[in-house]
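LAB NOTEBOOK - FOLDING QUEUE
OPERATOR: T.R.
BATCH SIZE: 2
PURPOSE: Compare the predicted structure-token outputs for two unrelated chains run back to back under identical settings.
PRIORITY: normal
REVIEWER: second-year student, initials M.K.

ITEM 1
FIELD SEQUENCE / FIELD STRUCTURE:
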Amino acid sequence: MVNTKDAAPGEGVMSDEVRRAAELRRANQQRQKQALNLQRENILSQRTSNPARRSALEAALAQIEAQIAAMG
């Protein structure tokens, strides 16, 4: 087993600090994606006969779906 303190740069072993930073980024991205999905669900659940409101909801939905797609 290779100790990260003894490993030379480029040996494919991540330091604990780099690993924690990557895990934090993943966790933040997951939370953002979850929040966007909740917003999406909320918009999809709304019913309205007002054309202006419906148009605003469609625009918001398109923006949220674009953000979700950009996150991967």
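ITEM 2
FIELD SEQUENCE / FIELD STRUCTURE:
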Amino acid sequence: MRPTISAIVPVFNGRRYLPQAVESVQLQSLPPAELIVVDDGSTDDSLAALAGLGSGLPLRVLRQSNAGQSAARNRGAEAARGDFLAFLDQDDAWHPQHLQTLAAALAGRPEAGWAYSDFDEMDSNGNLVTHRFLAEHGLQHPKTSLYACVAADLMVLPSASLLRKSAFSAVGGFDEALSGYEDDDLFVRVFRAGWTHVYVPQALVRFRVHGDSSSASERFLASRLRFARKLQGLLPDDRRMRRYYMRDGIAPRFFNSSLDDYVRACVARDWPTARLSYAALRQFAALRQAGARLRWKLSWLRQPRLFHLLVALNDHLPRPLRFVRNPMITLR
């Protein structure tokens, strides 16, 4: 039997990119049974971009006050009539074989709740940056342990996924309290619930990365800490099996991400973001039970302007004389 798939596109001020996203849905070799566009309180008349697209697909438009991407995805999933959910971000685009390939991966596997693929990275203008991003960066998939799911960023994109609706609903959908890491959070909960997943190494999606985007906004950093605390509650240490999820995996992962944010902010002289990142660093250092040596190194980051001057001085020294060649490595 032909699978019934609901395509769901959450939109917030996405008028520039929405036509390309919708056109990629229309061009699927296996068309979805319906297209649901959820307008999350846009102020740029985003839905006007749908006019004249001439989609032969049943189209439903849902509107809500701005509540965030997770809430918009959940709203679309609640309204979906299909057995499978295919989320597509407003600025991404599917390759024509996307739905057909992922549906085939789930066919005959009722225990599988999630199929996902590699993806191509494009810039804000739609130009190719990286082909098969996961393979290029050596990210190992599929995941076979819970520790592997939480010790590093998963990079399992909703736009590159096809989810069984029963699995999505069973775990409660996206966590609307998160504004960042909601994708990883959902994957972890589906994994823990016992659903298997299928990885397709083929790039089936074009994922847009905006050059001016930042992972160090106050809201994103707060979400990072909230997700870490949530994982801490879900995954207590298993001393018998010597699994120390927070100390050995989760806290070092987010410490390094926050350190990267801090260094980038200092280089850009973005002092407010640097201070936010430093506060996050201290919290993740405490969660990883940092020793005296790491705490001493952190003390050198207390003043972002001074750190910027030190990095500038270091960069002007001949390479053999540089006292720091990579701040990320020396501060781990």
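REVIEWER COMMENT (ITEM 2): The two ends are 52 Å apart (CA to CA).
FOLLOW-UP: none requested
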